[in-house]
Amino acid sequence: MPIIVGVAFKPVTKVYYFDPAGIEDLQAGEQVIVETARGRTMGEVVLAPRDVPDSEIRGVLKPVVRRATAWDMVQSDQMAHKEAETLTICREKAAALRLDMKVVKAEYTFDGSSVVVYFTAEQRIDFRNLVHELAQTLHTRVEMRQVGVRDEAKFLGGLGRCGRQFCCASWLREFTPVSIKMAKQQDLPLNTSEVSGVCGRLLCCLSYENDFYVEARRHMPRINSTLVTPEGPGKVKQIHVLRNSVTVRVDGPNDTTQYIEVPLEPTPEELPLATTASKPAPTPAPAPARTTERPARQPARARAERRTGAPDSDKGGEKEAERVQDQASRASHQRRPRRRRR
Hints:
Blueprint: E1 3-8, E2 16-18, E3 31-36, E4 39-51, E5 64-67, H1 70-96, E6 102-108, E7 114-120, H2 128-138, E8 141-146, H3 149-156, H4 167-170, H5 180-185, H6 192-195, H7 210-218, E9 226-229, E10 232-240, E11 245-251, E12 257-263, H8 300-308, H9 313-335
């Protein structure tokens, strides 16, 4: 089985996997020099070397060159101090060329052979002139990379609406998809300002508890389903997942309506639901239910008598007897043989 090691190049960023190349005693927190597509780069070991199945490896792993030395640390620190000056130069050049873009960050490689400039823009930008002027000023290869508003918030950092540091800047290494359906599952207001973060996108924390809400709602009655309450049957109008209860609308006499909050104890599965999808669950002491059965179909003559105003039961019985006697006499006449004329 192949051995891999996880390395991150910046704090709280994506973890990349490399081949230890014989250096299998690496520990988390050590600095190493690895080979990447952009050249040699210094990163921090996040995951110690471990065995993985062959099916989990895609492509060829690049090797770990060596452990970082003291001189490597000094060189990396020099490049980090140089990034602030480069960022100022990039912003001045972009403003001079009147480019509708916002330069967010400048990042040098380990050996200073190239610099990556991150920027945000609403539309595509023709930055060829900017790259040419930056290359002449910085005397290095310049690469422009457009990022989104979430990446910008991750680069800059700050405090969220909860009063704590941004999740993306403190511990969240990769962004997960967030949809407005998650806010609906948690009964949050669908106002944009209430469910959006500083970056203007939906809050990343909406996805943290979404699985719990989905599983809890699966065992609770649905909206507009019928539920038996102490006040009588009613329709579910609101679900309270955290309180494990539902609000039921019960219609009373004289067009009166009351809303009752019914706790779901001990588990939502034991509630008597009256929905078409599932069979009602039995209750400990069920009240006598009123059932209405469809009357049996009556003969056509009886239905006709009801429409025309039939007499009372005694007279109706006499008429029925006369009708039966009539039918018997007609049948006897039909059985008599006819005389043939000579």
